[in-house]
Amino acid sequence: MAQRNNKLTALYERLSKDDELQGESNSITNQKNYLEEYAQAKGLTNIRHYTDDGFSGVTFNRPGFQKMIADVEAGLIDTICVKDMSRLGRNYLKVGYYTEILFPEKNVRFIAINNSIDSATPTDNDFTPFLNIMNEWYAKDTSKKIKAIFQSRMKSGKRCSGAIPYGYKHDPEDKNHLLVDEEAAKVVRKIYQLAIEGNGPAQIADILTKEHILIPSAYLERHEEGEVSRNHSYHDPYIWNATAVSGILDKREYMGHTILGKTICDNFKTKKRRKARPEELIIFENTHEAIIDEDTWNQAQKFRKRVTKRVANGTYKHRLSGLVYCADCGSRMTYRSPEAQKRKDGKRYDSDSSFACSAYGNKYKECTFHFITSSALDQLVDDSIRRVARFVLTNQKEFLEQVGQLKETYSEKFLQESQKEVKSAKNRIQELDTLIKNLYEGNVLGKIPDRHFNRMMKEYDDEQQELEAKVAELEQELGQNENSEDGGDRFVRLVKKYQDFEEITPRMLNEFIDKIMVHEAVGKGLDRTQRIDIYFNFIGQFAVPFSEKELETERKARQEEEQRKAEAKRERQRIAARKCSQKRKEERARIKAAAEAGDEEAIRQYEAILDKERARRERDRASRKRSYQKQQKKAKEIEKAAQAGDPEAMKEYEKILENRKKATASTQKWRNKQKKKALEPTYQIEPEPTELEPEQELPVTASA
Length: 704
What we know:
The chain is 53% helix and 11% strand. The chain is built from 19 helices and 18 strands. Helix 5 packs antiparallel against helix 6 and helix 12 crosses helix 13 (396-444). This is Recombinase family protein.
């Protein structure tokens, strides 16, 4: 076939690392010579080489191949010539697309010399699809063999990758053994410590950035041994991100274990890798020195789940955030920050900082407010930690006995409840499988529209994923409960670790407290009570018995607090009464001044005020008269008893005589004061003295 003079003859050569094992015959140089000789013999001119050295035939993202296809799309190529079909590729679907669709559409002649394939003679190409399948089978078989070799190495504990976790370095004497790099290990320990203190990955990253600590990639490159990082995409060697911190917190290698097979490639064509499931991991325990202990790692994972989301101004967070839960619905309690209150006067109250159930007001859940101030909860938690720690240090034997009894009861109950939940969740997962199958069949048969199918499918899939995660978590807790060390001993070690503490730090709080369950309050005012359940790590809910001295101290403290609140209430009432009295004075003075100026409306209002004052004085006189008569009657009875020689009556009678003298002096003083005063206008009446307090005004309002 004659070649069009203005177009190219593309000679394509490819060599993968696996092909190098087959000897010199497949080398790039040999392929070029072979193709050039063929082109010269067949009269193919204007040749151009497209070469890919070291690229697998499974993937088609090869620079030389992509350049050749681009030239085909541009109409620059007339003929493509390869040594054999395997050089073009080992994916029979992709190879078939190019040879059967693209090349014919672009009027490109394709020649595979060793396979005797030439698109110019299509009758000789019937066996081409089978060649493509065989070439792909070869690639698949090679992939299986390589995967088997790696699996064998990993099962024997040997590493298949040169990458090692940050904080370790290679042992010069054994490349499969790791040694602790102390400089980087300090950073790893700091990250775990910050996580236990309640910081999230983003917050930890900010702290490390501010402290100007090298990120792992930059540290590896600047290490004294001069190792080169595979990832040099960072912009600043001192700016950490949450992904890097999360990766460090995820690694179990820091406990001294070797974890292999963490990613798996399911398809040799796509080369995409997925994260291995827990049962697929290959784990060898205690193969090198640990940087952190198992308890620290477990605590860090536990506290990572509690971390609350960061907000814009960073103020809506409390040290108990993530620990407080609603006892009725199980939802996490939401912290209400004082900064969220926007009062014009800028005042703040103790109730501004509080916790409330997050399900309250949610249209999908029903629950009550469960309000509690953060100050009350802080005080209760701190007191509980101190009391339990003091009890452990002074009565360790009794403490361990009580914990043992509680554990037996709790473990049996926990086991029954957890097994029941696991069974219920698994049954629901099976039901969802059936529903999904029926849903799919209904969609295929046209009974269910695509819109409904997609919506329902997403709902079922989300629910199934949640249930699977719940089952995995419960089964893990059941396994830990069976194999766990005695919680009492672990709690004793924890108390002794902090036995000399004065202040409860965030890390201590997270290490001691597992969760806090808040019940709804009962009653109002001084009668309001609220139950709070505090669960400690390792031992669960533990109540320290109160001594008589502590109970008496608690009673006194409660009485003092009630008295303080009552006095504060009375003081507020006195202040309000003084303000009200002052307003009445000012209003009365205004009306009086207007009346003296001749304002008829003011005169009527002032006369009404005076009438009310007269009526009130009459009522007060009648009341005082009745009170005076009762007092006189009682005084006569006391006088008779005193004359009869009753000691108690004699004391009471002496008090009565003393009060009479004081009353007589007060009355005489008032009369003398009245004589000195000038006469007021006819509509003005001077009030007579009453038994009211000197500072208290008569309860008269102008707007009667």
